[in-house]
């Protein structure tokens, strides 16, 4: 079980470039706008380690930004989508 003390105030957004470095897509397959002003400075990173989008507070600022980070860290999710659901 993961406790609140173990989690940051950052949130998974559902974007990834895993398997295709530099080409970011949302979980539904739509492309992520890399020109968005919401990306943190120098992000997204083209890296072999940082493949997931995270919404987190910028250091020393009162605003949140999108960061590209390691997918194996523990964070909250903005929403959860069951991609295997049928309608």
UniProtKB/TrEMBL annotation:
Gene3D superfamilies attached to this UniProt entry: Mannose-Binding Protein A, subunit A
Domain of life: Eukaryota
C-type lectin domain span: 1-80
Transmembrane residue ranges: none
InterPro entries, A to Z: C-type_lectin-like, C-type_lectin-like/link_sf, CTDL_fold
SUPFAM superfamilies hit by this protein: C-type lectin-like
Name of this chain's protein: C-type lectin domain-containing protein
Origin species: Petrolisthes cinctipes (Flat porcelain crab)
């Amino acid at each position: 079980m993961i406790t609140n003390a173990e989690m940051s105030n950052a949130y998974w957004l559902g974007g990834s470039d895993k398997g295709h470095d530099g080409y970011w897509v949302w979980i539904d397959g739509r492309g992520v706008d890399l020109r968005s002003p919401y990306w943190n400075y120098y992000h997204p990173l083209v890296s072999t380690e940082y493949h997931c989008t995270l919404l987190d507070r910028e250091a020393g600022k009162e605003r949140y930004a999108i960061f590209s980070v390691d997918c194996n860290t523990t964070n909250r999710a903005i929403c959860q989508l069951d991609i295997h659901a049928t309608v």
